[in-house]
């Protein structure tokens, strides 16, 4: 890169204003730009900077080889940077798509090449520090959901002293007619329940409180349909096709891969740092089904209340098929009224309209304390960000278009460094990564969106692309440099430093 252009970039960095700041960081409102050339290939240009480095003492500490750690739990909350930085996949690819650069063709590996103007000495230094996106890690397919080996749960199995009862494809937990000696908290880890629908039976009839904690478990459909259950459910790093019910907490969970709604809450449900993706389906059984990432429609005789979503991400591009992609977030109460419902600090990409906040009057009377705020919206939608018909009592604010790339998980494995990048805009974009004095450039293809402009498969969208640097890096600093200005989107160090100086 010519030196004059580098100086201009430095000046540009100093002039960048913080626009649209919220829990996931900066997204600049832009008008959607069409990509007339169709989907582009991900390409990479990597430039090694072998000139003298200005003060880089912060990265000279001894760094131990990266080790894989467990996926995040509720205790390693997303607003606190833990030692692992993100959820770190295993060194092998089992259960983790894209984690192994030698076996996964979707992994883009960067190799350094010589810089054309390497004889020039650096004339400026960019100091990089942590931003909100480095504390509130964006959910993606690598840091949410279950992974690894599992114990298969069969019909009528007994697990942790609890006897399941299978009937017509439903494997049920029943603490009323059986398991009457069970109380308190019961913990499950590493189980695969996905061969059956799992349901909690008669949970409003029992005379004691029970909490079932599931960590790193897989489910097909999970239902807890009693009006006011005394069985509370806690899910950490679990994978679902769908969940229906009440009194449940979810952290770092993954929903989707199916045509039915990912999550249908009735009351007292908390959803934090979860990932909803891929609801397009060619399954004939899904014909005519309207698919939502999450839908709140209420239940007769039960107030829809205390339902909270925060720091979540929805990747549901509008793809026509046997089912209809309807919305990322669908709030349309029909059978009851709503109180204390919030959807905040999240990312949504897709749907016809991405967000709905309407009502049908089959029992609905009012919304109270209902807030939709600080939502960054991608451009892979059919119509617009928010359906124009908004019910009385719903407060909507700070809905902005995504205008940059973003990087979610950053992890190490087999001596390599990985980062997960997504382009939810309709413009091909330039990702620049500085890692240990090496500059890497990647051209990230445009997404697609519109009534007639779409890709045929979810896998064709530039979502959660695994960028692999063939080095055990001490730091990575990521920028969207599409417009010629460096917009910082992710920064991670592995020596405990909070900043690094990069010569430009």
Walk me through what this model shows.
The chain is mainly beta. Helix content is 3%, strand content 41%. The chain contains one helix and 41 strands. The strands form nine sheets. Strands 12, 15, 17, 18, 20, 21, 23, 24, 26, 27, 29, 31 and 33 form a 13-stranded parallel beta sheet that branches. Strands 5-3-37-36-39-40 form a six-stranded mixed beta sheet, with no helix packed on it. It is globular. Residues 1-43, 45-103 and 113-122 have low confidence and may be disordered.
SS element count, helices: 1
Strand content: 35-45%
Work out the radius of gyration: 24 Å
Task: Name the shape in a single word.
Answer: globular
Tell me the major beta sheet.
13 strands, parallel
Number of β-strand runs: 41
Spatial separation of the terminal alpha carbons: 10 Å
Q: What class do helices, strands and sheet pairing give?
A: mainly beta
- Residue-averaged pLDDT: 81
What is the assembly state of the chains in this entry?
single chain
User: Low-confidence segments, ≥5 residues, pLDDT <50?
Assistant: 1-43, 45-103, 113-122
Helix content: under 10%
Topology (SSEs and partners):
Layout: H1 3-15, E1 21-22, E2 25-26, E3 43-48, E4 108-110, E5 113-114, E6 125-129, E7 151-152, E8 158-159, E9 162-163, E10 165-167, E11 170-174, E12 184-189, E13 191-192, E14 197-201, E15 210-215, E16 221-224, E17 231-236, E18 239-240, E19 242-245, E20 248-251, E21 254-256, E22 263-265, E23 269-272, E24 275-277, E25 290-296, E26 304-310, E27 313-316, E28 324-333, E29 338-350, E30 355-359, E31 367-377, E32 386-390, E33 394-401, E34 406-413, E35 416-422, E36 429-435, E37 438-444, E38 465-469, E39 475-480, E40 487-493, E41 499-503
């Amino acid at each position: 890169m010519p030196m004059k252009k580098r100086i201009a970039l430095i000046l540009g960095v100093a002039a960048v204003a913080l626009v649209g700041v919220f829990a996931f960081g900066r997204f600049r409102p832009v008008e959607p730009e069409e990509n007339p050339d169709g989907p582009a290939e991900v390409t990479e240009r990597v430039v090694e900077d072998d000139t003298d480095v200005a003060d880089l003492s912060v990265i000279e500490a001894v760094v131990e080889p990266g080790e894989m750690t467990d996926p995040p739990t509720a205790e390693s909350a997303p607003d606190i940077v833990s030692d692992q930085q993100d959820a770190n996949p295993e060194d092998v690819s089992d259960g983790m798509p894209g984690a192994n650069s030698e076996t996964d063709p979707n992994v883009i590996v960067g190799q350094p090449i010589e810089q054309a103007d390497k004889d020039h000495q650096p004339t400026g230094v960019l100091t990089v520090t942590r931003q909100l996106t480095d504390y509130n890690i964006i959910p993606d397919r690598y840091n949410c959901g279950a992974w690894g080996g599992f114990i298969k749960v069969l019909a009528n199995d007994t697990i942790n002293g609890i006897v399941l009862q299978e009937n017509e494809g439903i494997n049920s937990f029943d603490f009323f007619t059986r398991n009457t000696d069970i109380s308190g908290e019961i913990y499950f880890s590493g189980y695969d329940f996905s061969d059956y629908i799992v349901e909690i039976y008669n949970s409003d009839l029992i005379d004691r409180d029970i909490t079932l904690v599931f960590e790193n478990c897989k489910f097909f459909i999970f239902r807890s349909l009693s009006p006011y259950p005394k069985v509370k459910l806690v899910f950490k790093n679990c994978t679902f096709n769908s969940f229906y019910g009440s009194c449940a907490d979810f952290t770092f969970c993954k929903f989707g891969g199916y045509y039915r709604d990912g999550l249908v809450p009735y009351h007292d449900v908390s959803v934090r740092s979860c990932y909803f993706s891929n609801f397009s389906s060619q399954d004939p059984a899904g014909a005519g089904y309207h698919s939502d990432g999450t839908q709140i429609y209420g239940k007769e005789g039960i107030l829809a209340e205390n339902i909270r979503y925060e720091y979540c991400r929805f990747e549901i591009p509008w793809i026509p098929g046997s089912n209809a992609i309807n919305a990322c977030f669908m709030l349309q109460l029909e059978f009851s009224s709503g109180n204390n419902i919030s959807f905040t600090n999240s990312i949504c990409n897709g749907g016809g309209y991405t967000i709905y906040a309407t009502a049908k009057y089959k029992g609905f009377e009012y919304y109270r304390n209902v807030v939709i705020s600080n939502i960054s919206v991608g451009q892979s939608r059919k119509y617009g960000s928010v359906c124009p018909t908004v019910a009385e009592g719903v407060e909507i604010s700070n809905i902005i278009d995504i205008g940059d790339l973003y990087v979610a998980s950053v992890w190490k494995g087999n001596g390599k460094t990985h980062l997960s990048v997504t382009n939810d805009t309709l413009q091909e974009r330039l990702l620049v990564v500085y890692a240990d004095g090496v500059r890497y450039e990647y051209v990230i293809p445009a997404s697609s969106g519109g009534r007639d402009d779409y890709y045929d498969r979810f896998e064709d969208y530039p979502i959660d692309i695994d960028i692999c640097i063939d080095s055990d890096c001490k730091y990575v600093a990521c920028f969207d440099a599409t417009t010629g200005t460096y917009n910082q989107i992710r920064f991670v160090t592995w020596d405990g430093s909070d900043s690094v100086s990069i010569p430009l």
